[in-house]
Write a structure and sequence with these properties.
It contains ten helices and twelve strands. It has about 280 residues and is α/β, with parallel strands linked by helices. It folds into two domains: about 80 residues, 60s Ribosomal Protein L30, Chain: A; about 160 residues, SPOUT methyltransferase, trefoil knot domain (Alpha/beta knot, 3-Layer(aba) Sandwich), CATH 3.40.1280.10. Helix 2 packs parallel to helix 3, helix 2 crosses helix 7 and helix 6 packs parallel to helix 10.
Length: about 280
């Protein structure tokens, strides 16, 4: 059968309301961070538990699948009750509709507001007689790498992670999931000028160590310092010239080459904690 141009074919099966809804869900735009007027979605078990335990977070919605609720158990129920919020029970597909396509949410997600930017100098002031470490990121743009560095910073007790407002990933679900809860415990301080921030760190007592493959000395041989700013550059590009010029030393990880920036950060933080403690 043929149809005249401009005429709609007749007697074709119509899509149900459910089918139209599912098609719309499939066509929705994707992205690393799905924001709403109320805030942003953070997903994954450890990331969400971190949000629930952080009193600085305001929570707009909490969604959980029945399977995840059973798996998380009474500790999760207690955290929800302490925040005086209600958890919405949704199936896995319904949760996926709310967050970026392909994100591994593990059956739980929370809609929250971004954290306030902490005061730079107050947050980074060396704490007591023990060695203080601050991690400085020079144009690390991948949210998963940024989150993994944040996780290592938390594991080794860094006071803060410092990054620029631009050329750094915004707070979001992918970053939070990679950080595995550390986004809630390690302050992320965003600055407009990294060189000026490094000058301020020197003024308040930090030795600024830039990690670079061409560094003349191995990091493990670094003399003891009471406060260290570990400066890391982007993969491939490394530290920018101006950033390197604002470091007191450029050092390398002995015997290791071609490491992912998040792995390099973990190794360097281990070396710093081993030498200074």
């Amino acid at each position: 059968m043929t149809h005249r141009k401009g005429r709609k074919p007749q007697n074709l099966p119509q899509k149900s309301a459910k089918s139209r809804k599912e098609a719309a869900e499939i066509r929705r735009p994707t992205g690393l961070t799905r924001r709403s007027k109320a805030g942003l979605w953070i997903y994954g078990v450890h990331a969400v538990l971190g949000v629930l335990e952080n009193p600085a977070r305001s929570i707009e919605r909490l969604v959980v699948s029945p399977e995840a609720a059973r798996r998380l158990g009474p500790d999760f129920d207690r955290s929800v009750a302490e925040r005086h919020i209600m958890a919405e029970t949704l199936n896995q597909r319904a949760i996926q509709v709310e967050i970026p396509a392909g994100a591994v949410h593990q059956g739980v997600a929370v809609l929250t507001k971004p954290l306030a930017n902490p005061d730079f100098e107050k947050t980074c002031t060396p704490a007591g007689p023990d060695c203080s470490i601050v991690v400085v990121l020079d144009q690390i743009t991948d949210p998963r790498n940024f989150g993994a560095v944040l996780r290592s910073a938390g594991a080794f007790g860094a006071l803060a992670v410092v990054a620029t407002d631009r050329h750094a990933p915004p707070e979001g679900g992918a970053l939070a999931k990679a950080a595995s809860g550390a986004l809630e415990t390690v302050p992320v301080v965003r600055v407009t000028n990294l060189a000026r921030a490094l000058e301020t760190l020197a003024d308040i007592g930090y030795w600024r160590t830039g990690l670079a493959a061409e560094g003349p000395e191995p990091l493990a041989a670094r003399p003891d310092r009471s406060a260290v700013a570990l400066v890391l550059g982007a993969e491939g590009a490394g530290l920018r010239r101006l950033t390197a010029e604002h470091c007191d030393s450029l050092e390398r990880i002995s015997g290791a080459g071609g490491l992912n920036v998040s792995v390099a950060a973990a190794v360097a933080l281990y070396e710093l904690s081993r030498v200074t403690n």
